[in-house]
Design a protein that fits this description.
58% of the residues lie in helices and 10% in strands. The protein is built from eight helices and two strands; from the N terminus they run H-H-H-H-E-E-H-H-H-H. The model has no long low-confidence stretch (mean pLDDT 92). 17% of the residues are buried.
């Protein structure tokens, strides 16, 4: 499937892929929550419908943000992994979390406010780097 883009603007083109309400949630679930199987995603608190999840995973795979492979110890189970292109979204996710922390807490006071948020507030770059490093270490144990 070829992705259709509305125009040649880089911002709009990125939103043509990532602007859907589920795309970055799926990437966040993989990067931060360790989700990697279809079942993992369906059991998440965000409650994405299975038909939508299937379509979003397929699109993320088609544009190279994730890779679908088989679990080494169970060839029946599909495994979804972030690619380098997907991991390059880490700073964007960190910035979104930072923005949410600073601008939505007044209208959504139950947003997580633990140690990770303190680390994020103190050094976004280090926080992003640590997330990416942890994910790459996980990848090394799978491959």
């Amino acid at each position: 499937m070829r992705q259709d883009f509305r125009c040649n603007c880089p911002f709009t083109s990125a939103l043509d892929i990532l602007g859907d309400k589920w795309m970055l949630v799926i990437v966040k679930q993989m990067l931060i929550e360790g989700k990697e199987t279809f079942k993992d995603f369906t059991e998440s608190k965000e409650a994405i419908a299975t038909n939508i999840l299937s379509a979003k995973l397929k699109l993320l795979e088609e544009v190279g943000i994730i890779l679908k492979t088989k679990r080494p110890d169970n060839k029946k189970t599909n495994l979804y992994l972030l690619t380098d292109k997907g991991l390059a979204l880490t700073p964007i996710l960190v910035e979104l979390a930072n923005w949410s922390d600073g601008h939505l807490r007044d209208i959504h006071p139950t947003i997580v406010n633990g140690e990770s948020m303190k680390l994020l507030r103190n050094d976004k770059a280090a926080f992003a780097s640590a997330l990416e490093k942890k994910y790459r270490e996980k990848l090394a144990t799978i491959e």
